[in-house]
Amino acid sequence: MSDRVKIALLLTPALLVLGVLFSGGVLAALLQSLGYFPAIGMTEFSLDAYREVLGSRDFLDSLGLTVYIAGASTAISTVLAVAAALALRRSSGRVSAVVFQLPITIPHLVAAVGVALVVSQTGLGARLAAALGLVGEPSEFPALLYDPYSVGIILTYVWKEVPFIALIVLAALRGVSEELEEVAGTLGANAWQRFWYVTLPLISPGVVAGSLIVFAFTFGAFEIPFLLGQTYPNILPVMAYNEYRDIDLAARPAAMAINVVIAVMTALFAALYLRLSRRLRRG
Amino acid sequence: MSARLELEGVSHRYSRDEWALSELSLAVEPGELVAFLGPSGCGKTTALKILSGLLTPTGGDVRVDGRSVLGVPPERREAAMVFQKPLLFPHMSVEANVGFGLKMRGVPRGESGGKVETALRRVRMDGYADRKPGELSGGQQQRVALARALVTEPGLLLLDEPLSSLDANLREGMRELVKEVQESGGYTTVFVTHDQEEAVVLADRIALLFDGRLRMYDRPQAFYERPASREVAEFFGTANFLPGRARNGTVETRLGDLRLSTPTPPGEVTLTIRPEAVRFEEGENSFAARITSTTYLGTQVTCGLDAAGVQLKASLPPHTQLREGDRVTARLPAESLWALEDGPEGQPG
Amino acid sequence: MASPYKKRRAPVGLALVAALVALPLVPILLWTFAGEWRFPDLLPKEWSLRGIQHLTAPGSRVAEAVFTSLGIAVAVTVAAVAVGLPAGMALGTYRFRLKGLVIFLILLPILVPPLASTMGIHLTFIRLGLADTAFGVFLVHLVPTVPYAAIILTSVFADRTGELEEAARTLGASPLRAFVYVTLPEVAPGIAVAALFSFLVSWSQYILTLLIGGGSVVTLPMLLFSAASGSDPVITSSLAVVFALPAVVVLLIALRYLKPSGDQGLPGLGKVS
User: Fold this and answer.
1) What long-range pairs does A237-240 form, CB within 8 A, spacing at least 24?
2) Pair B25, B149 in one domain
């Protein structure tokens, strides 16, 4: 058996499964978004759904919120992850492994429940504030759930994704010789300069790659905003879901158009990530 | 510009009974190049890290121009260091690497450009300013590293075996470059090496360290002519040790009474003489010997001598006619003999 | 060591990070066993086992949901590894044209939310009678799990040189026997990582189950979600504990038995290609 045949045979099951279930699904979503939906007698291709969706106030509000949540979660997570990685750079062993891996393995829903129990108006945070005499009644504690600033959602994402980015940064840090930082020191660089001019540029491909994945994920993730988000506006995946659940099947193309927008944007992030991680490996 | 450096009782230990450096005291004069020489693990790199500020010693004091610098972090010491590996910043161009120290000190771009150019010219790397470190050979990288250290005109230049990562053929050129740059710049320089030859060629003075202790601190020549101990003599390749007893200006040995040109206090001593100083001729301090072995080494022939049961080594020119078994007259010139004062444990063989 | 750059700040940093990691988990544990816990008390006044009792109460459907979740996750794990193993072998062992593209296509379902593809395929599933069935849910769970399994196994195979198989062949082993006796034992830890990861991804899945299961397939996250939308923190917390349990167990297994290679969140993603 030649290598080519062997490779093709080995790849067939995975490509078949993903080709049918994923690519097929995306293709079906694309067709439906273009108005091709024979089940309800729509067989004409058109861009009506896109015109309707992309121009609507609802979509723009939702897009804005999605970018805000994904952007804020990613930015905060990235900064904290770099700090955490630097702080734990030299501590090895099982304790730090558990500490880092735990939030990665715990499901998002559990994280959301925990964050809600901390930041809700009767949560641990409010109780601590009351113990310190800062608030008397629960209603005096700021509303951090179902709120326009999506604090609860962002905190949940930060809790989940900081360790994820931090592990990537830690791996990148391992490739940075501490001697380089020492050289910088003997050349007159203070701690901040050593970080800014030497360490950060060297780990930045890892940092960017990690942040891109997190951005793509938070851009397209559904359940946390569905659980902790306000009613209107909500993020694009929730909007797509709501349109999809609409009793009127004519709303389907709109739901699918939103899906296609999400898929295209996250695919772009994915392509960017792959380019970066390839460059990262080449050094 | 160039600083005077003093170490006083500098000690460092990594754990309770692991001394890396013990009571090191010496002074380096402005513009002087001193080599810290010793086998690996002797504490020389520890000493250099202490001078750079990367390591704080557990005892003693380091003074630059009379002021203690112990509490001063590396970035505020005017001490530039070149490491064993070039350690260029891989994400910066050659120019940015060399200009790094100036940038950290807030030197304006216009001013730093000229300095970077000058520094690169001094290490003959002008024309490479826009390259990335990855595009340079090991020798070129090390030259850039040298320029990077020099560009801030440091009061103290610290070199940590900067030639050891280079191929043998590049090493000599780099050695000359270091010497040239150091002399023209007049930097007070401390140079760490395990290579005796490198130390002799480069250094004004050599500090020889064994097991974290300073064994001898002197001009290179002295290490050959007047070694401080048998250990020092052995490190510098002196092969001949001859036990004796000093009395009335001569030393009584199994080869007869030998005269030394330096006065020797009475008592048990060990005489040393380098193989290349042994003569084959009649005269003062001469005796009969037999050649027991000859080894051709290209530029010379070393031969083993047996005289009244005493084994000695001598060097002969490569075209010598002497062969194993030949009987000869050998002479140990008075000016080449040096008496080591031995404690009772120094049983010479 | 007394180097100014090697200060021992790690224990302080570690303690701080550990506290932040534990922060949202603490109230979950407290509420699970809380009886009366009114605002603004910092700790429950009374403890109770109401939450635990709810988990086993006949009407709560928790046992049934756990069973469904487990069944789907185990089936998904087996299938994802079975499909991902050959793909990982091909991508990790061989170099070929279009390999970058294949990797991109395999990674895409992790990075592009599977929500889009699942809504697209829903109609077909309805036509084929797969909607509202556990089998249908099993199928869509393959979309996010197969890529993980394939990519993890790719990096496992990429780390190998193949010299051991060659040695086995020269000792008279057939290709199949070399695979069974040499290759498989060597990649077994990698397969375990891929399996654990696939299990967790399937176990944690909410929206795909909701879409395709349509409410007929009740897994644990369904119950947790509706509890979390309600107002009984005791029930929510006890469900959350059960839901988080496999993650903790998997983590402990991984740390105990596997060498610490899971440096990256997407293990081995950086080593691919």
Assistant:
1) A237/A66, A237/A262, A237/C113, A237/C115, A238/A62, A239/A58, A239/A59, A239/A62, A240/C115, A240/C116, A240/C119
2) yes
